[in-house]
Amino acid sequence: MKKTIFIYSDDMLAYKFSDDHPFNQQRVKMTLDLLKECKVINKHQIIAPKIATDNEIALVHDKEFIDVVKRAGEGNLDVDTAESFGLGTEDTPIFQHMHEASSLLVGGTLLAAEQVMEGHVHHALNLGGGLHHGFRGKASGFCVYNDCSIAIKWLREHYDARVLYIDTDAHHGDGVQWTFYDDPHVCTISIHETGRYLFPGTGNYSERGQGTGYGSSFNVPVDAFTEDESWLNIYETLVREVAEHFRPDIILTQNGVDAHYYDPLTHLSLTMKSYDVIPKLAHELAHEYCEGRWIAVGGGGYDIWRVVPRAWGKVWLNMNEIELSGQLPESWLDRWQALSPYELPTTWEDPPDLYEPIPRKAEITEKNAAMLEKALSIIRYV
Question: Which of 29, 83, 123, 142 is the most core-located residue (most Cβ within 10 A)?
């Protein structure tokens, strides 16, 4: 088994909008610290990201937009211009050295792609990435440059790879979908909370691609308060059938963990049960179809204390075929409890009584199953 790499440096923490903004990269540091305390990662597996060049970023983003991001980070951009490019908004405020910080996150995902495709590793994890809302000429939803789209474009241009992109963030993976909406060699999957309630409002099952890319975009918008059983049925069924249909050369997973019950920005009810299965199936399919080639990135996740380190830790554990359950290390709990506004969970698992029973469970499950059927109809009935 070739080694797996974890891409990280403290410089990645510079992608920071403000002290009270929900997007907080400290969660990546907390996850790595948890893995270290569990003794499941060593210093040779941790690789610092590189800074993406302007030409690499321009694989997806307009050069005018790149210039605007640079000017914004230097404090040299007027308000109207900034807002026309999605910057200086409540979601995506301007911060100092924004271009440099964003370029480092992109560089981390490009390094992951390079290491996997060159055969140096089977799997690569860049939890600082996953900024799936960024568009060609506009920032959106906490995302400046879209590292997922840039890495996929790089894989297409350098290796002519067939890329399967799987997005399990509670928010629709809109930026990646629209970037490759007409490309039959990039298949995008997004399972997300319905846009009736949640940003960005897109991701209907009817968004299937266009032109020669028609049939390569799959969306399942799930109802608010969806629980593990219904969500996992959708995930396992959809991802298995699409992988069999598309037969990718490499898998890139966006591992937003904001569908968890504790997340403050969404309305879903997943627990750690789902966040164990998500990477386990991705790992299995990477070896079944792609000779193990699997890149995983981060994404949403705004309860950085009770959810993100455990859920993202599970990605690394599954990449390395390590089973851990039960108690979290006391050393880790002691270190972070002093900073946390919540009582930290003491085990990898959530308790079975994490929340009160959902009264509409049967109705939600039925609606979700119907949505899955609609999403898959394009490959089941042709």
Answer: 123
Mean pLDDT of the chain: 97
The model's pLDDT over 219-250, given as tens digits with 9 standing for 90+, comes to 999 999 999 999 999 999 999 999 999 999 99
- With vertex at residue 7, the alpha carbon angle to CA 33 and CA 199, rounded to the nearest 5 degrees, is 90
pLDDT digits over 320-360, tens only? Answer: 999 999 999 999 999 999 999 999 999 999 999 999 999 99
Q: Counting beta carbons within 10 angstroms of the beta carbon of residue 297, is it exposed (0 to 12), middle (13 to 18) or buried (19 or more)?
A: buried
CB 318 within 8 A of CB 125: no
Q: Is residue 50 pLDDT above 70, yes or no?
A: yes
pLDDT for the residue 132: 98
Instruction: Specify whether the CB–CB gap between 132 and 199 falls below 8 A.
Output: no
**From residue 127, how far is each of 25, 115, 138, 364 by CA, in Å?**
9, 16, 22, 31
Supply the DSSP string of 157-186, one letter for each residue. HHH---EEEEE-SSS--HHHHHHTTT-TTE
User: Is 315 in contact with 125 (CB distance < 8 Å)?
Assistant: yes
| Distance (Å, whole) CA 177 – CA 43 | 35
Give one word for 330, left, alpha or beta, with left for phi > 0 and alpha for psi -120 to 50.
alpha
Q: How many domains does the chain have?
A: 1
Residue with tokens 């890319």: 213
Q: What are the tens digits of pLDDT across the range 294-317?
A: 999 999 999 999 999 999 999 999
Contact 62, 137 (CB under 8 A): yes
Domain that holds residue 215: 5-380
Number of Cβ within a 10 Å radius of residue 329 = 15
Tokens for 83, please give them: 């807002």
Asked if 173 contacts 141 with a C-beta cutoff of 8 angstroms, the reply is no
Cα dist from 205 to 126, 159, 202, 232, whole Å: 29, 30, 10, 17
d(C-alpha 19, C-alpha 125), whole Å: 26
Domain at 21, CATH number: 3.40.800.20
Question: Global pTM?
Answer: 0.98
pLDDT of residue 197: 87
Compute CA 228 distance to the chain's CA centroid, rounded to the nearest angstrom.
18
